């Protein structure tokens, strides 16, 4: 106990010295050996390939996707051998071939074929990617079926999770399509389910048709946890529906605050009844936070999910990160590096004491090592 108190006292003393403004100023270097890749990510409700004129035209959808310039795009309302409305096409396979992209499809509905021996009839969400999809799964969230004459909310598939390797950055990419009904109760359940699933990954992007405006109470947990890419748009409203005369924003791109967002825009198209939304983001090899605020978010995330335990541990981590932010604003590179080393010692000590899980230690240590390399130039 005495040893622990002395250790904590040492950190508090170090923090006190850290906040003194009397030190010499150094230029902060911003380079790193790790590759940073800027990509465009997007979301698009393709309305089963039907445009605002009501006609099915998959080439028109492909052109709209092409025009977004998206490297990774989530699609909603995708038909796979569904029926006459989409010529019984496997829409996602045809789009992937046409656009030379990898894909994964997550059906919401999966029915027997109308005729024996034919492919199964499916409808759901999909992802298209120019980068390798290393793993993918169709997760369950609450749904109120549109195919059941007497539905009740229950877990059902159609929440897509894909691990995508972007030049060494492993990003968890999620695609969703939330309930359309005026009563928000199902969407509220869906958001809670999605957050629980997404908690497993801290370097993630969520895209989709949320069927609710930004001020909807049921969406607030997403706005509180993740960064809404539209914040970085220079456009006024972000309205995406209906495509012919948009009057509401219901299509979104969210990112973990560890990921840098540069811009966001909506694309004009009549190929479907929604407009595509595109965001430009940067991903760092090794899946690191791009700034200290991202690492603070990571600490809060691990506290929330029990991977960091104890008020003392949490306070020390936050105090060190605040000191780092102070030094970064002052441009004091030497002090930045010293405090980063202090955080490394703290993380090792708290892990040894069982106050930090292996996962939290690994991700936080990786961030700190990245910043050491970035600033120790």
From TrEMBL:
Start and end residues of each Endonuclease/exonuclease/phosphatase domain: 42-271
Keyword Transcription regulation included in the entry's annotation: no
GO cellular component: membrane
Molecular-function GO terms, alphabetical: endonuclease activity; exonuclease activity
Sorted UniProt keywords: Endonuclease, Hydrolase, Nuclease, Signal
InterPro entries in UniProt: Endo/exonu/phosph_ase_sf, Endo/exonuclease/phosphatase, FIMAH_dom, GPI-anchor_lipid_remodeler
The organism's place on the tree of life at top rank: Bacteria
One of the GO biological process terms: GPI anchor biosynthetic process
The FIMAH domain, residue ranges: 293-372
Signal peptide: 1-27
Protein name: Endonuclease/Exonuclease/phosphatase family protein
Organism annotation: Oceanobacillus picturae
């Amino acid at each position: 106990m005495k040893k622990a108190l002395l250790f904590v006292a040492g950190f508090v003393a170090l923090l006190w010295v850290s906040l003194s403004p009397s030190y010499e100023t150094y230029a902060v270097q911003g380079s790193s050996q790790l590759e940073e890749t800027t990509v465009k990510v997007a979301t698009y409700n393709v309305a089963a390939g039907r445009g605002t004129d009501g006609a099915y035209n998959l080439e028109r959808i492909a052109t709209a996707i092409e025009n977004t310039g998206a490297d990774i795009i989530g699609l909603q309302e995708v038909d796979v051998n569904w029926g006459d409305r989409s010529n019984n096409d496997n829409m996602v396979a045809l789009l992937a071939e046409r656009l030379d992209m990898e894909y994964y499809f997550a059906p919401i509905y999966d029915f027997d074929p109308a005729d024996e021996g034919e492919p199964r009839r499916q409808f759901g969400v999909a992802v298209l990617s120019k980068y390798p999809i290393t793993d993918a799964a169709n997760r369950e969230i609450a749904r109120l079926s549109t195919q059941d004459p007497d539905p009740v909310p229950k877990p059902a598939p159609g929440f897509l999770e894909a691990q995508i390797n972007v030049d060494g950055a492993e990003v968890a990419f999620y695609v969703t399509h939330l309930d359309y009904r005026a009563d928000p109760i199902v969407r509220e359940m869906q958001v809670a389910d999605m957050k629980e699933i997404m908690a497993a990954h801290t370097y993630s992007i969520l895209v989709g048709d949320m069927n609710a405006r930004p001020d909807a109470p049921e969406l607030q947990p997403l706005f509180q946890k993740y960064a809404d890419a539209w914040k970085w748009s220079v456009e006024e409203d972000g309205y995406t529906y209906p495509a012919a005369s948009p009057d509401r924003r219901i299509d979104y791109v969210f990112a973990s605050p560890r990921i840098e967002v540069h811009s966001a825009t909506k694309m004009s198209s009549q190929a479907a009844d929604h407009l595509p939304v595109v965001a430009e983001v940067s991903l760092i090899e090794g899946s690191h936070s791009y700034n200290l605020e991202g690492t603070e978010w990571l600490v809060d995330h691990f506290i929330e999910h029990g991977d960091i335990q104890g008020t003392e541990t949490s306070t020390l981590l936050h105090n060190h990160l605040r000191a780092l932010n102070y030094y970064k604003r002052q441009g004091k590179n030497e002090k930045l590096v010293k405090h980063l080393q202090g955080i490394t010692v703290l993380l090792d000590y708290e892990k040894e004491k069982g106050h930090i899980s292996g996962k939290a230690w690994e991700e936080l240590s990786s961030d700190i090592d990245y910043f050491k390399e970035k600033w120790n130039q």
